[in-house]
Amino acid sequence: MGATLRVYKRRIRSVTATKKITKAMEMIAASRVVKAQRQVAASTPYASELTRAVTAVATGSNTQHPLTTEAERPARAALLLITSDRGLAGGYSSNVIKAAEQLTERLKAEGKEVDAYIVGRKGVSYYAFRERAVQESWTGFTDSPTYADAKAVAAPLIAAVQQDTAEGGVDELHIVFTEFLSMMTQTALDDRLLPLSLTETAAAAAEGKDGEILPLFEFEPSAEDVLDALLPRYVESRIYNALLQAAASKHAATRRAMKSATDNAEELIKSLSRLANAARQAEITQEISEIVGGASALADATAGSD
Amino acid sequence: MAELHVELVAADRQVWSGEASLVVARTSSGDIGVMPGHQPLLGVLQSGPVTIRTTGESGDGTVVAAVHGGFISFADNKLSLLAEVAELSDEIDVQRAERALERAKSAADAVAERRAAVRLRSVTGVH
């Protein structure tokens, strides 16, 4: 076998092996997306009931609470960035990190300090490489987050919000994650969790229910106590929802990246086989012409000796 | 007979939903019973058993669930019980709960002990 042909054959073999791997990863990711989507759907009743309750208390009472009142001069904001632990997901992590960068710029332009809280190894290493301060970070559960994980993430954030700004607390809480819109579309999104923008929530509730009038609630034991208990749960459930959506988006992004890798490998195999075929043909042609040339040279030699 | 619609949801799933004639839950200021037509209510739940008297499509019977913290909200004849963790009594593994209770007692973990005790009480029906 000729040298060029051997090189082509070897490359085809290696690309075929790669293709098998990416194909397997694509299928694994596809099955995980479905599971993650189901989890998002399962968490929706709790989140929507909780939002309804928060809206009811916040609009139905004149209670002042640190988690709903806007600071007069907000000086510090917390930013929760949700990335993934693993790569091989195309632009997933870089997109969400870019969104976080833009938000950071905007907050800084408004004169606020930004405290970073990060979920996922990709975000952690991005910040570590640039030697930026990170308040707290979590890794290891981005593929399938549980409610306990969301609680663990929410605890220091809620504590920071309840603390005085002068003592290192924050006035605002922003979250940056990838929203799962569909199998093909996921967008990086930033959202302000706290303080609650009540006008928006109230308007959304009114729109959703055709201007349903919220009933006058009786609070047990009291509006303050209910709000005290309700708001941390609200933050937890929002963070849980964001973690789940980010996980679903990550799997969808992996699936897409692996699909295009498989397609590219197929393309590469096709063009390499063409080259290998051409090389084989060239080799055969050369051998034939060598034989023909050799035979005629021999014939000439015998004719000459006569 | 009038009935109210009940949704019992945990953070990660819907545990139970259906029609009921009476729901008894433990709020931080004591047990509260909600019947159809109750005044709109929003309360903080303590961990404890929740008893739902079912009627209508769900059939006449009683559903007991162990609920660990959360909220009760009632408006427009719709009652929602929101809990971080909620389990129906027939989902609870008695032996596991007993083991957890023993462990919590020996480790002097008051929260875990209470949680296990609530689970057991929901199964045995001793309130």
General description of the model:
The complex is a heterodimer of chains A (306) and B (127). Chain A has 306 residues and is an alpha/beta fold. Chain A has one domain (27-258): Pyruvate Kinase, Chain: A, domain 1 (3-Layer(aba) Sandwich). Helix content of chain A is 64%, strand content 12%. Chain A contains six helices and six strands. Chain A has a five-stranded mixed beta sheet with strand order 3-2-1-4-5, sandwiched between helices. In chain A, helix 3 links the parallel strand 2 and strand 3. In chain A, helix 4 (147-162) packs across helix 6. With 127 residues, chain B is an alpha+beta fold. Chain B contains two helices and nine strands; from the N terminus they run βββββββββαα. In chain B, strands 1, 2, 3, 4, 5, 6, 7, 8 and 9 form a nine-stranded mixed beta sheet that branches. The model of chain B has no long low-confidence stretch (mean pLDDT 82). The interface between A and B is medium-sized, with 30 and 26 residues. Strand 6 of chain A pairs parallel with strand 4 (41-45) of chain B.
